[in-house]
Design a protein that fits this description.
Elements: H1 2-30, E1 34-35, E2 53-58, H2 66-74, E3 81-87, H3 94-104, E4 109-114, H4 123-134, E5 139-142, E6 147-148, H5 153-161, E7 166-177, H6 181-204, E8 215-218, H7 219-224, H8 237-247, E9 251-263, H9 268-285, H10 287-291, H11 298-313, H12 319-339, H13 345-362, E10 367-370, E11 373-377, E12 383-389
Parallel strand pairs: 1-9, 2-3, 2-5, 3-4, 7-9
Antiparallel strand pairs: 5-8, 6-9, 7-8, 10-11, 11-12
Helix pairs in contact: 1-6, 1-11, 1-12, 2-3, 6-9, 6-13, 9-13, 11-12, 11-13
Length: about 400
C-alpha cells in the first residue's frame, strides 16, 4: 500500500512538471513580443499630444557597457523627454560616461545629479530619491543601468501608460550575454526560465510582476502610495512599487515590449550570487508561489524522480524523463525563435539544473550579495544591515 502511494506521488509530481512545460509552451505560442531592434511603430499624427517624460537612471559604476546602454535612451524618437542619471559617489565612473554622451548628444536633455540622500537600506531607492527631486516632468520612467532599448521604446509604451487604469507599466527583458560561460548561464536562465514563468503567471491571473528594467508611472501615483520612502528598506523595491499601486486600485501592466539586458558575469561565483539574490527576492514577495516553483524546472525535477520511478515501475519509469526531455528541446527552440536569441541547448539544460539548485538554496538563504556588500534579509523581505564589501 505504501509502495503504491509513494509511486503514485512520484508520478503525480512528474505529471505536474510535464503539465507546466506544456502550459509554458502554449503561453509562448500565443505571445507576440516586440523586441528591441525590431520596434517599428506607426508615428502618432500629432506629436504635441505626447506628454513629456522623465527617464530616471540610477547608476553605480561602469561595467564597460554603460555607454551603449545609456546611448540607446539618447536615440529615442520622442518629442519631449529628459534623462536624469544619478550617482551617490563623486568618483563614480558612470559620471564620465554621462559626460561623454552629453557631448555626443547636445540636443538631448541629459544630465546627472550627485546625491547623498538616504531613505533606507536599499541603495537603488536612495539613489532614485536624489534623481526624483531633480526631474521636471510628471510622467516618470525608471530603468536599470544595464538596459538597452530601441528608438521607438517610449513611443510604443506611451498609449498603455496613458490608460487611466494603469498604475505601473513594466516590461520583460531578454538576456544578451558576454561570451563567457557564467554570463551565458545567467542569460539562459532569464530567457528560458524567468521570462516564461512571468508569462505563465500573467496568463493564469492578474499580472503582479513589476521589474526594474522598466517601471513607468505618473508622479501622482508615486505620491499617493507614499513616495519612495515606502520602498526604502525593501529588497524587491520594483515588486512593491507595483503592489502599492495595486492597493490604490490601479493595475500593473505587462507591456508586449521586451527590452535587452546586457549580462556580464565575471565568474561562476558572480553568476551564482546574482541568481541567488533574484531567487531570494522572489521568495520575499511570493513565499507560497516560490515554494511551489520547483514545477517550473521540469527536466531536473523529473530527472531526480526517475530513480524512484524506475524502482517502482521498472523500465516504464523512464517514460516521463524521455517525454520531458523531448518537450524541453522543442521548448528551447520555441523560446529562441520568439526572442531571436542564440542560447545553446547545452547551456539551457545546465541553466535548468543550476536553477533548481539555486531555488533550493533560496529557500534557506538569509543574506544576499548586492553592489559588493552582503545584506541580511528578514522574513518579510526587508533589508537589514550589511557586512561591508566582499
Amino acid at each position: 500500500m505504501m509502495h503504491d502511494l509513494w509511486l503514485g506521488a512520484l508520478f503525480l509530481l512528474a505529471l505536474a512538471a510535464l503539465g507546466y512545460q506544456l502550459l509554458a509552451m502554449w503561453t509562448l505560442r500565443t505571445w507576440q513580443p516586440v523586441l528591441t531592434g525590431a520596434d517599428s511603430n506607426p508615428l502618432p499624427a500629432a506629436h504635441e499630444k505626447l506628454p513629456a517624460l522623465s527617464l530616471l537612471k540610477p547608476l553605480h559604476g561602469d561595467d564597460g557597457h554603460l555607454y551603449a546602454c545609456l546611448r540607446s535612451f539618447c536615440l529615442q524618437d520622442y518629442p519631449r523627454y529628459e534623462i536624469v542619471a544619478g550617482v551617490q559617489d563623486a568618483g563614480d565612473a558612470a559620471i564620465a560616461v554621462v559626460q561623454r554622451l552629453q557631448r555626443e548628444f547636445p540636443g538631448v536633455n541629459l544630465r546627472w545629479v550627485l546625491s547623498d540622500e538616504k531613505l533606507g537600506r536599499n541603495p537603488k531607492v536612495n539613489n532614485l530619491a536624489g534623481i526624483l527631486g531633480a526631474s521636471a516632468h510628471d510622467w516618470l520612467l525608471i530603468s536599470d543601468a544595464d538596459i538597452v532599448v530601441g528608438p521607438h521604446y517610449l513611443r510604443h509604451l506611451q498609449p498603455q501608460l496613458a490608460d487611466p487604469h494603469t498604475g505601473v507599466l513594466t516590461c520583460l527583458y531578454r538576456g544578451l550575454p558576454e561570451s563567457n560561460g557564467a554570463s551565458r548561464l545567467l542569460a539562459s536562465q532569464i530567457n528560458s526560465l524567468f521570462l516564461p514563468s512571468v508569462l505563465v503567471s500573467a496568463r493564469l491571473g492578474p499580472n503582479i510582476f513589476c521589474g526594474g528594467a522598466t517601471m513607468a508611472l505618473h508622479r501622482s501615483t508615486l505620491e499617493a502610495l507614499g513616495g519612495l520612502a515606502k520602498l526604502a528598506d525593501q529588497l524587491a523595491d520594483d515588486y512593491w512599487l507595483g503592489a502599492q499601486a495595486r492597493q490604490l486600485g490601479k493595475a500593473t501592466i505587462l507591456a508586449d515590449y521586451v527590452v535587452d539586458t546586457l549580462v556580464q558575469e565575471a565568474s561562476f561565483r558572480a553568476f551564482y550570487l546574482h541568481a541567488l539574490r533574484w531567487a531570494r527576492t522572489t521568495r520575499s514577495v511570493q513565499p507560497l508561489g516560490y515554494s511551489l516553483a520547483f514545477f517550473s524546472y521540469p527536466l531536473p525535477l523529473v530527472t531526480l524522480l526517475t530513480p524512484g520511478l524506475l524502482l517502482g515501475a521498472g523500465y516504464g519509469g523512464i517514460i516521463p524523463l524521455g517525454m520531458v526531455l523531448l518537450l524541453r528541446l522543442v521548448y528551447h527552440r520555441q523560446i529562441m525563435h520568439k526572442l531571436s536569441a542564440t542560447d545553446t541547448w547545452v547551456t539551457a539544460l545546465l541553466a535548468d539544473f543550476w536553477g533548481l539548485w539555486i531555488w533550493f538554496h533560496g529557500l534557506f538563504a538569509r543574506q544576499v550579495a548586492w553592489r559588493g556588500s552582503q545584506f541580511k534579509v528578514s522574513a518579510d523581505g526587508r533589508l537589514g544591515g550589511h557586512d561591508g564589501a566582499r
